[in-house]
Amino acid sequence: MSNDPVILKSNKYGLTLQLDATIPFEDLVRAVCKKFAQSADFFGETEMILETQGRELTAEEGMVIIQAIELNSKIKIILIHENNELKDTRMLGQIDKFYSDEIFENAKIIRGSVMKNDSITSDSSLVILGDVKSKASVQAKGNIIVLGSLEGAAYAGYPDNTGCYIATGLLDSNNIQIGTVNGAIRIQEKWSFRVHKKEIEPMGVSVWNRELLAEPLSSGLLRRIKN
Predict the structure, then answer these.
(1) In the predicted model, is pLDDT for residue 183 greater than 60?
(2) Per the domain annotation, does 155 fall within a domain?
(3) Do the domain assignments include residue 66?
(4) pTM for this structure?
(5) Which of 10, 36, 156, 200 could form a disulfide with 164 if both were Cys (CB 3.0 to 4.6 A apart)?
């Protein structure tokens, strides 16, 4: 049996960290820093889904581990897989946990970006672990979540479910449709100044009074849709 407090293994999601459950957390973090500093050239610049095993981590400890990895390598951890649940470490932290669990349970997950002229469809929800580039298109019968920027076309709720939504780390497209509703996207008035300043923050688009309405996820948009 290895005495290494941090063991790296590949998995179907990305990377598994087998963590020692007995050593102090501070020592574990130092071991993670050392391990990824030594492996930085091997991994290069990449985005990964991280799974942890062997030790239960609080939410705060999980974020410390992620920071330790990112500070000592060129890896970006975009999702963490804990206890058979995928949890977003960035944008989806603003969505209620029970709601994000439902999203990932049935969603089609695309690792990386959807490039120019590519087209992706899903019979359920769709999660893009990257960008949707200009002239690319994504379509889902359920919701669409883009962790990066949305520049291309997105059609959620295909063909006629206006109760779905589109969420993105950066909304930079006017080619959006939800169910049977498309056209201009109305920015929620109280947020319009911030949006015009192009402040980068995750945005959600839903249907309200037969219009497409956009507002930051932090405003509670998706919780209102859920309820």
Answers:
(1) yes
(2) yes
(3) yes
(4) 0.57
(5) 156
